[in-house]
Amino acid sequence: MSSESEKEPDGRHRVVVIGGGMAGARLAQQLAVASEAAGAGAAAAPAVTVIGEEPHAPYNRVLLAEVLAGRYAPEVVALPTPAAHHLRGVRAVRIDRGPRTVHCDDGRLVPYDTLVLATGSNPVLPPLRGLFETGGTSWGHRPAAVLGDRFGGGRELPDGVHAFRTMDDCLTLAASVRPGVRAVVIGGGLLGVSAARALAQRGAQVVLAHQGEHLMERQVDAHAAGLLRTHLEAMGVEVHTECRVRGLRTDLVACADPAGAQPAPMATGTSGTRPADTATDTGDARPADAADAPRPARGADRGHRAPRAGRAPAPRAVRAVVLADGFALDTDIVVFACGVRPRVGLAHAAGLDVARGVLVDDELRTSDPYIHAIGDCAEHDGVVYGLAGPAQEQADVLARAIAARLRDPGPHQAGNQVGNQRGDAAAHRYRGTRALTRLTLSAPPAAAPPAADALADAPADALSATATAADAAAGGPLDLATFGEATPAPGDDVVQLSDATRGAYRKVVVRQDRLVGGILLGDLGTVGALARAWEGDAPLPAAPLLHLLTNDGGS
User: Fold this and answer.
1) SS3 letters for 407-435?
2) Tens-digit pLDDT profile for residues 134-165
3) Whole-prediction pTM value?
4) Which of 54, 150, 165, 228 is most buried, by the most CB atoms less than 10 A from its CB?
């Protein structure tokens, strides 16, 4: 078992970051900036180690849909590599809080003075029938993100079934797409809409199945969702809302028995050897409950032999997505875009306070004074953001706090450590993020890919796509910006402007004299003024509310 040096040769403070994604990369970058701004020389700057499971350099995951669409090559969305010691392709498996050491899967021990969890989140895989090999013991009873590894128990998805969260997910999916291939995207939120659009641009025949009443219900109202749906359908995407998916139908693509006989491929998954459930239940928009999942296979009475211990299950390939009413959507590819869940297993095993995410205070400190958490895995003031913008803001705040503490380090005993953090970092507190989400469904054909540095400084939750022939049918690019509470509460004032001929829609929600939310679709000329009014949380001027939607104020 190898170990990093117990102390840096130059005595520098050791900051270890678990997670090499956007939050971890931003923190490492900003630690260097903050240390320089605080007047710390090279000898006083912290020694930063970033432990990342992915083999890739950090990248802007907000733009993964652009890589899938073919607009950007993977290297274009790469983020600047911060000056730090990077352990790529290495997984942290345990935190030993006593000696303050991180244990890695390659046997390495990495000691820390300050540890930062930036472990991100896992894609949610609903407990659908046929998703995992039925010979397992818990294949469909728990979402994958709450299990030990990414999909739990070393299980593999059937061929053609994809999560869409990492660069490897994106590249694997892109390699399987060709003109005319049939694809079903499950989930019509921001990620699902982006994935469906990207696949359509690659020439796939796309069906978007969403369990909610309308697309992107967390960000937009029914009117804006209707315009969004019209635009997607003009690009060739078939959209189904209030659509409950019950399971997958798969084929065994290789199933040799011990005697050497090779049975013909046969259907498994949703129906096993019996017909799919044909009971009509389209009103229930939820995924099939865990109780609906079939029991594990019982050998020959299920039509095939259950996998023996130690034998890898026969590979399977998806053939259809089966809905609750029994209707089957034939497909070659399934993409899950059903949301994410914070990765908290490491923190939970270490005994840190965990709710939905790792609980942190205004200094982004966990229940252990030596450990912080930022990004998708962190829960601050009851909120798990799951967005790139808040993750970057948290990284910036924490970098300034660490740099300020190191400027006047004081004793490093546990009791004094807490006092120093509370005192020195008092001016560097995280108060939450008022995030604005932007989505662009098309872009001018001649648009050149921006440089990597420009992407790193781009709005955190901005997404864009390449123009296609469908753009003309869809009326050109469709821009969307949402912020705050788009659904009014009783007593709120609402101002709406709609232009059906231009596919434009604007709506703001005002509570007393404060702007609390809004939706801009089609024309973002007023987004700058509205975003500043919302982010500043200042009283609105006495001008009529309509002024909010007609004054561009600089965007």
Assistant:
1) HCCCCCCHHHHHHHHHHHCCCCCCCCCCC
2) 533 333 333 333 333 455 555 678 999 999 99
3) 0.78
4) 228
